[in-house]
Amino acid sequence: MFQALPPTRYDLRFFIGDIPVRVHPLFWLIALLLGSSGDLLTIPIWILVVFVSVLVHELGHALAFRFYGIRSQIVLHAMGGLTIPEAAPLGFGWASVSPSPKQEVVISLAGPFAGFTFAVLVMLGVVVSGGTLLISRLFGILPLPLTAILPFGGNVPSIFVTMLLFVNVFWGIFNLLPVFPLDGGQVTRNLLIQYDPWDGARKAQWVSAIAGGVIALFALLVMRSVYVALLFGILAFQSYQSLQRRY
Fold it and tell me: CA spacing 20 to 30 A to 123: which of 64, 100, 194, 200?
């Protein structure tokens, strides 16, 4: 479900520095479907916001890989993005490079925190430009900047910036939840493996299955979001299935 799809002739390919990026056509389709409830003005803005935000997130992973001397490539696919480490030359061949559990934790956290850093820079840009940030509270718990008002360009720049803040903060928080294959699930797995090398991976799957189920119920009953409930319900079921197959 969250694996990179095979290349097609319609893929968009480009480089950021020396990091190759491939965008599968289904990425655009899913982004369009996620923004389908908007009007003709907000849908293209939403697609651009999703593209920029997912790319920033994956660049965080890619730069963390590079910090540890590992080259990687970015693939944007139907369910978001994936940063794939590349094989390194070894003698007369190539070898896969596996980061240590501690390095994996840093690499996993680098994606969401790249988004948070980007959101902070966007907020600073709003303030410096003379704009206004309206702070709301999500379910009375999490303070999130949900509305940006810019003093120029009409509604379009304000809508664009507001969506950027929403995606990079809200999606970043969800990505840190301890559910596979989200970054929070990867962090939980690597931390538990360090604490319990023999049984840490199984414990992480149980955490993922239970947390995913709880979040699905929360999304359905409190957030009133069928999409989020369905997503985390599927992830919880996949973690439970993995437990049944492997343990």
Answer: 64
